[in-house]
């Protein structure tokens, strides 16, 4: 089983569909099916079972996927170490970044780093913060950028923080908040690390319970801060969003979220990594570059 086979098995496990896996791999479905059949002959086991909903992995297939993921991680580590032995800042830097950061903040940073280290290539995964944490726990990425104070017990660096606002079309009285329609940001369900609640949600709940004895009157559940903002612009209610999503051009009224102690509530953006990966020249140089930009 070679590197391509390992990547193929990983895609198949994630997609649970021959068609979608083939699309990700840029091959035809018959070509993917043929390769799977060849592997089944080599190992003498069935790897998948086709169903009306897609392709389900057999127990043997799941074992091969586990092996394939470990093999890919070990292969990447080996490539990293060989380059590092020459103390060269080159190779592929594997990054995982929170979706918003990947859209708005990361591209110009990568451009500047590329000018600084032209021999570096990037492999970037944009996802939700808990998914980025899972990737770095599994050692599938070198460096992660997450939004929120998730538990991480290795190296981290605060890149920036932002205020959290109550936004509304017209001025509102905080005392009346429980009686006003609330446009609530509902976070997407995450398969990995599902037991960890979002620090942002916990922060909002703690602030609310400090001030009110009744729950908010939620009239809309949306999965995008931009959608929250657009609903507010139409006068359909108020919302609570990170400040980065609000600009003066929106023409909205904003109220800083402040604890009764007077402390403003903020949302942090962290760069996280393993201290041990700084042995790799490419990681050490990128971490220092990011610190120089923000610290």
UniProtKB/TrEMBL annotation:
This is DNA-binding transcriptional LysR family regulator. The keyword Cell membrane does not apply. Keywords: DNA-binding, Transcription, Transcription regulation. It holds the Pfam family HTH_1. One of its GO terms (molecular function) is DNA binding. PROSITE patterns: HTH_LYSR. The keyword S-adenosyl-L-methionine does not apply.
């Amino acid at each position: 089983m070679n590197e391509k086979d390992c990547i193929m098995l990983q895609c198949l496990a994630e997609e649970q569909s021959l068609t979608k896996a083939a699309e990700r791999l840029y091959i035809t479905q018959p070509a993917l099916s043929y390769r799977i059949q060849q592997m089944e002959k080599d190992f003498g086991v069935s790897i998948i079972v086709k169903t009306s909903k897609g392709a389900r992995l057999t127990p043997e297939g799941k074992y091969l996927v586990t092996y394939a993921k470990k093999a890919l991680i070990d292969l990447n580590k080996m490539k990293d170490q060989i380059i590092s032995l020459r103390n060269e800042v080159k190779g592929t830097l594997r990054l995982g970044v929170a979706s918003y950061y990947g859209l708005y903040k990361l591209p110009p940073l990568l451009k500047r780093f590329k000018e600084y280290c032209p021999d570096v290539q990037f492999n970037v995964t944009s996802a939700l913060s808990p998914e980025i944490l899972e990737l770095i726990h599994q050692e599938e990425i070198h460096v992660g950028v997450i939004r929120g104070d998730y538990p991480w017990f290795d190296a981290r660096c605060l890149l920036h923080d932002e205020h959290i606002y109550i936004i509304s079309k017209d001025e509102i009285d905080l005392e009346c908040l429980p009686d006003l329609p609330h446009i609530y940001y509902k976070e997407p369900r995450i398969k990995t690390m599902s037991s960890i609640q979002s620090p942002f949600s916990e922060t909002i709940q703690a602030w609310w319970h400090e001030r009110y004895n009744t729950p908010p009157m939620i009239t809309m559940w949306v999965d995008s801060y931009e959608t929250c903002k657009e609903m507010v612009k139409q006068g359909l209610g108020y919302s609570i969003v990170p400040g980065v999503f609000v600009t003066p051009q929106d023409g909205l009224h904003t109220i800083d979220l402040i604890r009764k102690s007077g402390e403003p509530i903020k949302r942090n953006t962290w760069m996280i990594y393993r201290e041990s990966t700084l042995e790799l020249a490419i990681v050490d140089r990128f971490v220092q570059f990011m610190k120089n930009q923000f610290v």
